[in-house]
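Subject: for your reference before the review

Hello V.,

The reviewers asked for a structural picture of the protein, and I figured it would be easier to keep everything in one thread rather than splitting it across files. Below is the amino acid sequence we used in the manuscript, unchanged from the supplementary table.
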Amino acid sequence: MTVELRGHHFLCLLTYVGNGYNAEFSRAYDAIVERLNAGEGVRVVSGPDAICEALIAHEKEPHCFLARVCGRDARAAAEVGPLLGRTIAQGAEFVLSGEDVARLRHAFAQGAIRSACNDCEWSRLCTRVGKAGYRGVRLMPPQDPA
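And here is what came back from the structure prediction:
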């Protein structure tokens, strides 16, 4: 099995600490993170993905289909792809490793892969999580130095 992800959710996953639009959304997001932490692969999709599903199911007009959100996907994919050494385009499949996540988190903290975050309502929270050393994140948490 694979988890379907859209471009900008590669960034959202980096700082996810359990906050979401509602409790059901957060529970569904937690389940996706557990699958990724267990080593399940990802398949890049264009438009709404596995993370969007809980929002789409309960909102009358979910933002997941808006052009500005699809634009976020393109900006994120263009920045994330080179760091992962692969093209982030529809249909691409791979496993997101701990090393990949660490590389992305470093670039995120440096602001190098944040252009997709410019019009996002969660941007301030994600910035705080990054500045706090990603404490409390759910996707492959950073290891504390021994």
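For the response letter, the relevant points are probably these. DSSP finds six helices and three strands in the chain. The mean pLDDT is 93.

Happy to draft the paragraph if you're swamped.

O.
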